[in-house]
Amino acid sequence: MKIAIALEESDRDFIWVIKSPNETCFAHLLDEFETRMRKERKGLIIRGWAPQVVILDHLAVGGFLTQCGWNSILEAITAGVPMITWPMIADQFLNEKLVVDILQVGATVGAKVGGPYFENQPLIEAETIKSVIERVVGEGMEGEAMRKRAEVLKEKAKAAVQEGGSSYSDLKSLIED
After folding, report:
1. How far apart are the C-alpha atoms of 98 and 77, rounded to whole Å?
2. Which of 92, 139, 147, 152 could share a disulfide with 68, CB 3.0–4.6 Å?
3. Looking at residues 34-45, what average pLDDT do you find?
4. Which keywords accompany this UniProt record (predicted)?
């Protein structure tokens, strides 16, 4: 619900992919939210599977809220999209450090614990989520810098898989060996 509030209060269009709401209460609230967003022509909610790579590659995408799974990070980097990070378990917290602190192509909502300790996680407030959305996709200098760094990483990722690139060469060596 906090994500829904943040999205609604932000000045940003969005696509929100939700695998399946578990709770009947949440499903009802999600239906109401979806109706309002459709009416306002502000957001799109996709229930179930969505073509994430295709969506990330679209020019209109300004940011990506991710749980920091490795595949999603690679997909965002190769699309040149900055990230809003919200890790949940295991290596996702380390992946977040890479995205936010080292590559500097993302900002965190501030999740601190996950896995079996998830129920001890303090709620991330809607205002915090909205603020991070604005930091990443907004017009400010921080978001602009993230977008520039993400674009540089995109070009490096493309170069790596081209003939002569590091990934291309490494795969070729593996096959030859």
Report:
1. 12
2. 92
3. 89
4. Glycosyltransferase, Transferase
pLDDT one-digit tens code per residue, 42-93 = 889 998 899 999 999 999 999 999 999 999 999 999 999 999 999 998 899 9
Q: Could you tell me which residues come within 8 angstroms of residue 62 by beta carbon, excluding any fewer than 6 positions away?
A: 12, 81, 82, 136, 137, 147
Question: Which neighbouring-strand residues pair with 85?
Answer: 66, 108
* Residue 40 shares a structural domain with residue 74: no
Question: Is residue 120 within 8 Å of residue 143, measured between CB atoms?
Answer: no
Among the candidates 50, 66, 81, a domain finishes at 50
* DSSP string covering 11-23: S--EEEEES---S
Number of domains making up the chain: 2
Residue type for position 68: C
What are the angstrom distances between the C-alpha of 68 and each of 50, 80, 98, 164? 17, 15, 10, 29
For residue 119, the surrounding DSSP H or E stretch is: none
Quick one: pLDDT at residue 112? 85
